Amino acid sequence: MIPPNTMKILMISPLSPDSFWSFKYAIKFLKKKATLPPLGLLTVAALLPKNWEKKLVDMNIEKLSDKDILWADYVFIGAMVIHRKSVEEIINRCKKLNVKTVAGGPLFTMEYEFYSDKIDHLVLNEAEVTLPGFIKDIVSGTAKHIYTSDEFSDVSKSPIPLWGLIDVHQYASLSIQYSRGCPFHCDFCNVTSLFGRMMRKKSVTQIIDELDYMYDTGYRGSVFFVDDNFIGTVSYLKNTLLPALMKWKQDHLEIYFFTQVSINLADDDDLMEMMRVAGFDQVFIGIETPSNDGHAEAGKTQNHNRDLVGDIKKIQRNGMQVQAGFIVGFDSDSPSIFQDQIDFIQKSGITTAMVGLLQAPEGTKLYDRMLKEKRITNQMSTDVLDASTNIIPISMDIDTLQKGYRYILTKIYSPKYYYERIKIFLAEYKNHGMKEQVSLVRLMAFARSMFVIGVLGKERVHYWNLLIWTSLNHPSHFPTAVNLSIIGFHFRKTVKVYVK
Question: What parts of the chain have a pLDDT lower than 50?
Answer without folding.
Answer: none
